[in-house]
Write a structure and sequence with these properties.
This protein starts with a strand and ends with a strand. The chain is an alpha/beta fold.
């Protein structure tokens, strides 16, 4: 038993000793030691998308990285062995001023200089330096954006700098930039979820249409802004988007800080060292245990040897959002994701039968039935006829 889980977080390897089976990814990310406040935890049930991050794994059959947006409030940390997690902080950051150009202004009060009487040589020098810096940044951005459309370039990053700056990344996440430009954020609590879902979606579906983009957000909720502005910004990445789509929209007037942001590529860090299979994790922390069998034989042995414990089989862990009390009583979690026999198609015998992967995701299952006589589409609802 290794009692340790290792995975990559925004391109950097992290290891957690003796992880508790009930430690969820969202709680780990927002813990004081990690302090990644981008992902939020609005519902904790996988229903609103505010906690969305990108999970990446190496597909050995396709010999490439596979990405998907997941709800971090449902993902146990013990189910991350050998995988790659990207939060909004890892997809491209806003441009920040150099330390020597930070401005400090005297406050008008009884003990400070009145407004307009800032004669400090340090303040004047800093203001002039900041002004020159701003001009050079705007000039560089104007030159780089000249002649470009709003489509988002995509890039898989195999090396991440220790401290990202304008020299180590290509600019701000273009999805976040477009969301802001089209007034798609009010309180901002849900914005990161929308940005991360869209970042993964256009990375995986670079030729998506406006309709496909709109359908991709059925797992994201906004509680204050309304969806029109959000979808307007997101649809600018669609393959069938036209300038006329936003003719009647209110244009956002950017201030100098917003204008200094260079919308770059949609970056998903994926280190070369992560090009391998997911790693099984076993841990025994406190009253609960976690096991990850890699074969049906190993699963059978665990179920037999631990038959006196209260066992729960785990895969996507989506039931956590509905049956939380049952998780409190569970003493042994058995992760069945890495069992090959549960990840191969099971072919039907009849010619109308379809191959079904036992541990497939729902969208993978539906895609196998599309355009067949087993499935009918009625007002965007899929009806699957079985038997």
């Amino acid at each position: 038993m290794n009692n340790k889980v290792s995975f990559y977080l925004n391109g950097k390897l992290v290891s957690i000793e003796n992880p508790s089976p009930d430690l969820l990814l969202i709680d780990y990310l927002r813990s004081p030691d990690v302090a990644l406040s981008g992902p939020k935890k609005p519902c904790g049930e996988g229903g609103c998308g505010g906690c969305t991050v990108i999970l990446s794994r190496w597909d050995e059959k396709q010999n490439k990285a596979e990405h998907r947006a997941i709800n971090s409030c449902l993902r146990p940390v013990c189910a991350l062995g050998g995988l790659v997690i990207t939060t909004v902080e890892g997809t491209g950051a806003v441009r920040k001023p150099d330390a020597q150009f930070l401005q400090h202004t005297l406050t008008a009060s009884r003990s400070a200089a009145p407004i307009g009487e800032q004669h400090s040589p340090v303040f004047i020098e800093a203001s002039e330096a900041a002004g020159e810096k701003r001009k050079s940044v705007l000039k560089a951005i104007t030159a780089k954006l000249k002649g470009k459309d709003v489509t988002a370039p995509l890039k898989l990053v195999d090396h991440v700098a220790a401290c990202p700056s304008e020299h180590s990344h290509d600019g701000m996440n273009p999805v976040a930039h477009q969301l802001a430009l089209y007034n798609g954020s009010q309180c901002g609590y849900c914005s990161v979820g929308f940005v991360m879902n869209m970042s993964e979606f256009i990375f995986t579906h670079p030729k998506a249409t406006k309709k496909e983009i709109e359908d991709a957000f059925d797992g994201n909720l906004c509680r204050c802004t309304g969806y029109r502005a959000i979808l307007t910004g997101m649809k600018t990445f669609a393959s069938d988007w036209q300038e006329s789509d936003v003719t009647d929209q209110i244009k956002c007037l950017e201030d100098h800080v917003s204008e200094a942001q260079l919308p770059g590529t949609v970056e998903i860090p994926f280190p070369i060292a992560a090009r391998g299979p997911a790693e099984p994790v076993s841990t025994n922390a406190g009253p609960q245990q976690w096991r990850t069998p890699t074969s049906l034989t190993a699963l059978a042995e665990i179920l037999h040897n631990e038959r006196n414990q209260k066992i729960r089989l785990v895969h996507g862990n989506t039931s956590y959002g509905v049956y939380k009390p049952e998780y409190l009583d569970t003493t042994l979690f058995v992760d069945i994701r890495l069992i090959p026999e549960l990840n191969f198609p099971i072919a039907g015998r009849g010619k109308r039968d379809k191959e079904i992967v036992v541990a497939d995701r729902l969208n993978g299952l539906v895609s196998q039935f599309v355009e067949s006589d087993i499935v009918r589409n009625n007002d965007n609802y899929w009806w699957v006829h079985l038997g």
